[in-house]
Design goal:
By secondary structure, this protein is mainly alpha-helical. The chain has 2 domains: 136 residues, no CATH class; 124 residues, no CATH class. It has 8 helices and 4 strands. The strands form 2 sheets. Strands 1-4 form a two-stranded antiparallel ribbon. Helix 1 crosses helix 4 and helix 5 crosses helix 8. The protein is elongated, with a radius of gyration of 29 Å.
Length: 308
């Protein structure tokens, strides 16, 4: 495979480099989040075990900064800057495309609007120095030793899988956004309905109560009719509110594995337009996971007692 001028790598080599480092990046993310949350989470936008941002990042660093690859300090500085800018652009781009903040460094010191922070920038620089000076030469040799036919077959296979996974992930994000939109709209309807019904109910109650007080001593048919009218108003109001509440609870409780994976994979993801609805959805998911964990613990405990 002929290398591309000025880049010094062929498309064949760069594709395999991309896949390798995307997988390694996914593994790093999984380990990082396991230490942070105490459980496994399938990190990344895709369902497959790859994080494309790492694959693209290593290729850019390897191609653009080859002239300073033999020096540690300059390499650290320029790669820290490049990776930080790249992370910022990816974060802004994904927010514009999908209406959500996929990661948030607001809790870290010296951050810029939650997209980037000095701590992660330093880690990017250290990681790039290790990758370029120690690991990347080994990866390139391994790619060169791979039979070309096998390499081409893997490229075709990975390409098909990535396209399918990308379409699936985009559909999952759209489903999440639609669900959040419906939850948000029903929340607003419930609020407006409660206010409107409450105002009408309050006024009707005052009217009925005034008439009821006047005729309370008579206890005739008119009084009974007024009481029935009062009860009818209350029952109708309760029915309307409960109907919207049922729809709201149905949207919150519906199970969708693709949507749940995204929420677990990005615990700091925030919706730009429907932040409150997303937090409600995330809390309900976390409660469901907690209940499931408790049940599983009790089950395991009972099985151990039975074995004993």
């Amino acid at each position: 495979m002929e290398p591309i001028p000025f880049i010094e790598y062929s498309l064949y080599q760069m594709f395999h480099m991309f896949i390798f480092w995307a997988f390694i990046g996914w593994g790093i993310e999984v380990c990082w989040m396991t230490l942070e949350t105490g459980e496994y989470q399938n990190r990344g936008f895709l369902n497959m075990p790859i994080c494309p941002i790492y694959g693209f990042g290593v290729i850019m660093v390897t191609v653009f900064f080859r002239p300073v690859s033999h020096t540690v300090i300059p390499l650290f500085i320029v790669t820290s800057i490049l990776c930080t800018v790249f992370e910022l652009l990816v974060g802004l781009g994904m927010e514009k495309l999908f209406g959500a903040r996929w990661w948030d460094y607001s809790h870290e010191r010296y951050n810029y609007k939650g997209y980037i922070c000095i701590k992660i920038s330093i880690l990017w620089g250290m990681g790039c120095v290790i990758v370029i000076r120690l690991v990347q030469p080994i990866v390139e040799k391994f790619i060169d030793l791979m039979p070309v036919k096998l390499g081409l077959a893997l490229i075709v296979l990975w390409s098909v899988l990535i396209v399918i996974d990308l379409i699936s992930s985009i559909c999952a994000v759209n489903k999440l956004n639609n669900r959040l939109k419906q939850i948000d709209e029903i929340s607003k309807i419930m609020l407006m309905s409660a206010v409107k019904i409450g105002e009408n109910l309050s006024q009707e109650t005052l009217d009925v109560k005034g008439k009821y007080d006047k005729f309370i001593e008579a206890r005739d048919a008119k009084t009974l009719a007024l009481k029935q009218r009062y009860e009818k108003i209350v029952n109708a109001a309760d029915f309307k509110v409960s109907e919207w509440k049922d729809k709201y609870e149905g949207l919150i409780n519906v199970r969708d594995r693709s949507v749940e994976r995204l929420l677990k994979a990005f615990p700091h993801m925030r919706s730009i337009s429907y932040s409150e609805s997303m937090e409600t959805l995330r809390k309900r998911l976390n409660n469901r996971i907690s209940v499931s964990s408790v049940k599983q613990s009790k089950k395991n405990g009972s099985e151990k007692n039975d074995d004993g």
